[in-house]
Amino acid sequence: MSGIRVISGSARGRRLKQVSGTDTRPISDRVKEALCNIIGLDVHDANFLDLFGGTGSVGIEALSRGAARAIFLDTSRRAIETIRSNLSVTGFSARSEVLQTDALTYLERPPRTGFDYIYIAPPQYQGLWAAALQRIDNIPSWLNSDGWAIVQIHPSEFSELELKQLTLFDRRRYGNTMLCFYSLPQRDVEI
User: Fold this and answer.
1) Which of 40, 46, 103, 104 holds its CA 20 to 30 A away from the CA of 141?
2) What is the reported pTM?
3) Taking the C-alpha atoms of 173, 174, 177 and 181 in order, what is their torsion angle to the nearest 10 degrees?
4) Nearby residues of 188 by Cβ (< 8 Å), 6 or more positions away
């Protein structure tokens, strides 16, 4: 991938740094644009949690399109430095929090606040997406009542999960990337 950029909103066109090495799974502009089109204007004033932050590209896109706040998590020091740099370049540092911590450990405790969107794009083929969803399912207050948990995985990673609270309401495939959308049951979701 030649580089990543902010597609739309107040930081449109800004180039973002990538994390060196192969530990992260950057989202293509095509998939990111499709995701943002699905979320649409609902991202305005939203609270966004980017669990496996990588470059921060998805959370930064949400901030550029009007999200109120974003929290980025990653265990990698290089990823944390990259996210902070990208937030500085786009001017979103004041509306963000960046934590070097394990996403699964983070999700084991009750949240300070619920989120409108939780984005889950972990390293491939380790089952981390399912473990993260299970933790959100165990403590559903991580999501606001009309919130979404969105998973980015390779299509071959997908499997149906036995969840008590969360419901899979849509799946979209873009080449070798699949986006899976989960919500709490009290909301009928149409996208």
Assistant:
1) 40
2) 0.92
3) -40
4) none
Give 47's strand partners.
Answer: 69
Nearest to 70 by CA among 98, 89, 32: 98
CA distances from 7 to 4, 19, 63, 111, 144 (A): 9, 19, 12, 30, 26
CA distances from 3 to 31, 112, 183 (A): 14, 34, 32
What does the pLDDT look like over 96-136, one tens digit per residue?
Answer: 999 999 999 999 999 999 999 999 999 877 889 999 999 99
Residue 165 burial by CB count (10 A; 0-12/13-18/19+): exposed, middle or buried?
Answer: middle
Task: State how far the Cα of 98 lies from the Cα of 74, in Å rounded to an integer.
Answer: 8
**Token pair of 172 as six digits:** 């979209």
